[in-house]
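User: I'm putting together notes for a lab meeting next week and I want to include a structural view of one of the chains we've been expressing. I don't have a solved structure, so I'd like a prediction I can at least talk through. The sequence is below, exactly as it appears in our construct file.
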Amino acid sequence: MDFGGTEIQQAVAAAARKFATERADPAAARADREARFPEELIRELGGLGLLAVNIPAGYGGSEAGAVAYAMAVMEIARADCSLAVTMAVTNMVGETIAKFGTPEQKARCIPRLASSEWLAGAFGLSEPQAGSDPNSMSTRADLRGDRWVLNGSKQWITSGDRAGVIIVWARTDIGAGNRGITAFLVEGGTPGLSVGRHEEKMGLRSSSTVSLTFEDCEVPATAVLGELGHGLRVALSALDGGRIGIASQATGTIQAALQASVRYARDRRAFGRPIADFQAVSFALADMRTAHDAARMLTLRAAAQKEAGRPFGQEAAMAKLFASEAAQVAVSKAVQVHGGYGYVGDFPVERLFRDARVQTIYEGTSEIQRLVIARNILSQG
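Assistant: Thanks for the context. Below is the predicted structure for the 381-residue chain, given as structure tokens.
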């Protein structure tokens, strides 16, 4: 199968590659050391159309499709995973509003996200005691007159302190189980919304991750995204697309690990010759390249399914599972190729090692992906 071959897909990938090489890569190490949110680079991504790749042009998007989006995330992740995850979440929020929002919601939110007038979008689903289990969600929304009043907290929210709009899930009917969950659009700075501390993370240090608290946070009735009580449908749809984003990020990580290892193996000499000449090193490079190509094909297959309007949940889960776990192996091999230098911050593989670790955790753990895949297999008889 050949994915990513159209003119628009190639143009989007080329723009992302140029930006990654010239702007993101030179700034990544310092941003990681300082845990500094790359606001200037986010603004530039907006100018390039990379914050709304799969969004209709009428709302300020690039309308380039899911495959072009996946290719763009791969390129940005190759340079800086933190920047890639910020970009991916904003794209995911915009796509979710485009799919489920009213015309008024779309017109207000999407152009601001696409242009980076609103610096980011955020996805408020996880809670301190409810990560992969929405049944344990405790955040509530109560209707008082013509206003919904939110109370509760969210955890691990990417760009939660920077977001112009946050999609927040809350229980609107305590006794209705999953059918009592509703999605809301909450704009940053809304009274009653407060931002918690920045998490001290192992990796993705220049991507902001915070907790959010809602204390009598009032939003209008028009803030409901999708149908009342059908918020879980909104979440599952968004997560399927989000898994393509994480698979793309992991694929870019593998590529970065391979490229760094090839450079080092050619330059580093031992016993009078480049270490690339030794079979142990060359085999590690071969494994990384194979993993990269397999991850890329699985990811672009899922994106192509999505773009064609076909079911893609299983394909997205498979891509996310394989790519994220392959990235763990690839970055470990890259550190090993670099030897002692791979363990210190002088070379990029140390940062790659830290950044990659969360890829098997967020947007659904590897265990959740296996459940999704297994259920699909068994449901087919």
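A couple of points you could mention at the meeting. The mean pLDDT is 95. Strands lie at 120-124, 140-144, 147-158, 163-171, 181-187, 193-198, 209-220, 224-225, 269-270, 273-274.

User: Perfect, that's what I needed.
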